Design the sequence.
């Protein structure tokens, strides 16, 4: 059973990559330029992996069946998957990955007779030309190599898929973005104009990022999640902007066990400059959870804590080449406060 699961994941990854190569070849020839097909960024097309697995399970059941029966089954499997994935891409990711509208006998531009015939021919090629040598190849590859390849490729696909899903979930149309940015700035402006908060621009927080930039980023991304999940946007923005309100370079100075203590300092400082709601207090107090053991009391606090962790981790993984002079930071802040940019 273990070996079966390993073979399934390995084959899924293998044919996803093979399918990507096939599409690259076809589309690049057709368009006379390099085209990376599909929704995901990496070199794989899970549609091919899924169809290959489905066919691998179907072929043995059709042994001895007439060609017409096989053609019909291959049509249902391949065209069914094509229609399903086209609809998923359209409705969940707002992406139109291919369009057969200009082809005869098409259905909503998602499937068409010509490509269904191509798919059937490809399925026969899979049965007679690809599957027999692939079975031999599969038996020869050692479980360690299979496991390593399957784990690497599958994890990459999963991360890629999650990234695309999150971006799609948080994505906005240009009109929506203007409305969201305005709402964000209307709530954030009083705090960003506060001279105490503004001094955060003088402290480096993470690699190439000031503390002010960090809290604004956390506030904005958390705000987007909050909007999508219908949470309290005002509490999220204000709590996130104040979550790291402390005034020392935590890498060189400040109290011991900074990671376990700075939320208390930030909360004290925040109380001095504004009146905080219970939710805002909880956001600041729990933003280092699970380091600070007691879990967030509100969904808003959990979102800010997760976004803070994500942004901080990303800051250390990605080194951005940006101008960091205090003058440039001040100019950026000025622009934002004057409403030119959020
Ligand atoms: Fe923090
Ligand atoms: Fe933070």
Sequence:
């Amino acid at each position: 059973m273990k070996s079966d699961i390993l073979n399934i994941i390995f084959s899924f990854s293998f044919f996803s990559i093979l399918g990507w190569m096939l599409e690259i070849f076809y589309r690049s020839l057709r368009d006379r330029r390099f085209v990376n097909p599909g929704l995901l960024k990496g070199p794989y097309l899970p549609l091919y992996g899924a169809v290959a697995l489905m066919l691998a399970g179907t072929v043995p059941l059709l042994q001895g069946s007439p060609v017409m029966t096989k053609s019909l089954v291959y049509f249902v499997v391949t065209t069914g998957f094509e229609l399903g994935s086209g609809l998923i891409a359209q409705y969940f990711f707002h992406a139109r990955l291919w369009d057969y509208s200009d082809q005869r006998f098409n259905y909503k531009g998602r499937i068409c007779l010509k490509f269904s015939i191509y798919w059937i021919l490809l399925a026969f090629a899979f049965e007679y030309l690809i599957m027999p040598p692939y079975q031999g190849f599969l038996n020869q590859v050692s479980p360690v190599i299979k496991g390593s390849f399957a784990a690497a490729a599958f994890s990459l696909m999963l991360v890629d898929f999650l990234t695309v899903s999150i971006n799609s979930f948080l994505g906005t149309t240009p009109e929506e973005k203007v409305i969201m940015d305005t709402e964000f700035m209307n709530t954030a402006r009083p705090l960003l104009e506060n001279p105490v908060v503004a001094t955060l621009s003088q402290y480096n927080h993470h690699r190439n990022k000031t503390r002010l930039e960090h809290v604004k980023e956390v506030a904005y991304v958390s705000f987007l999640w909050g909007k999508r999940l219908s949470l309290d946007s005002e509490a999220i923005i204000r709590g996130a902007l104040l979550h790291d309100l402390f005034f020392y370079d935590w890498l060189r100075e400040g109290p011991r066990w900074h990671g376990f203590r700075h939320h208390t300092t930030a909360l004290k400082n925040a109380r001095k400059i504004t009146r905080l709601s219970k939710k805002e207090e909880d956001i600041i107090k729990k933003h280092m959870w699970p380091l600070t053991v007691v879990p967030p009391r509100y969904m808003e606090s959990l979102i800010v804590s997760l976004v803070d962790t994500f942004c901080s981790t990303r800051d250390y993984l990605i080194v951005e080449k940006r101008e960091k002079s205090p003058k440039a930071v001040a100019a950026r802040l000025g622009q934002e406060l004057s409403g030119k940019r959020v």
User: Anything to note?
Assistant: Residues 2-31 form the longest helix (30 residues). The radius of gyration is 27 Å. The chain has two domains: 2-170, 174-337. The pocket of fe (ii) ion (ligand 1) is lined by residues 243-244, 262, 287-288 (CB under 6 Å).
